[in-house]
Specification:
Layout lengths: L16 E7 L5 E7 L1 H10 L3 E4 L4 E4 L8 E8 L6 E7 L18 H16 L5 H8 L1 H21 L2 H21 L4 H12 L1
Length: 199
């Protein structure tokens, strides 16, 4: 966990500070609540999110009852020293309504970063890049790789090994996004189709 200078914090008039919870892996904002000094100290000590309930006037352990705890990865203080960014590994929905985030579904930043890298490789074509190699070889090579990776996903699923299936699925998704770029399809088009199908 990142070291935090608690003495630098500018507490508000109620001796509280807003704390924004963010999924450390995707970058998605999950929720916002308040911490007092005791809640922050318990968060640091237990590496799980604790807050101060302004309505109930008591400490509360996020997920203490539901089991949806928020495992703390890091805590950062903003440039004005009056807001905390708490990056967490969520062990269940952050919102009391049962959704992943209190702010809606949002975007998957990890996939967006992958897409940006593929876009960069397409434009710049750096040497010794596998992505450059695929684009230089053209559509037939890309389609062959998509087919091969799809087959490997099937084999991994039949082998019933979660790690292998995760690895092969990551390879498949990567090649699929290369194909999307080659055919000039924005992945948001796929998301729009999924949204329409969901109704």
């Amino acid at each position: 966990m990142v070291r935090l200078e608690v003495t630098s914090i500018k507490w508000n008039s109620d001796n509280l500070i807003p704390a924004i919870l963010q999924d450390y892996l995707t970058g998605k904002v999950l929720m916002m609540a308040y911490m007092n000094k005791e809640a922050l100290e318990k968060t640091i000590a237990t590496k799980e999110a604790w807050f101060w309930s302004r309505s109930r006037k008591t400490l509360w352990h996020k997920g203490g009852t539901s089991g949806n705890v928020q495992k703390v990865i890091s805590i950062a203080l903003d440039c004005d020293y009056d807001t905390l960014l708490v990056q967490v590994d969520p062990r269940g929905p952050a919102c009391h309504l049962g959704t992943e985030s209190c702010f809606g579904e949002g975007s998957n930043l990890l996939l967006e970063n992958l897409i940006k890298i593929i876009e960069q490789r397409y434009q710049e074509r750096p040497e010794k890049s596998y992505t450059t190699y695929l684009f230089n070889e053209g559509i037939d090579k890309i389609l062959k790789k998509v087919g091969e990776e799809a087959a490997e996903v099937i084999i991994a699923a039949k082998n019933n090994t979660k790690k292998e299936l995760a690895q092969e699925s990551a390879d498949f998704l990567y090649h699929l996004f290369v194909l999307f770029k080659e055919k000039d399809i924005d992945y948001r088009q796929i998301l729009e189709v999924l949204k329409e199908r969901r109704g």
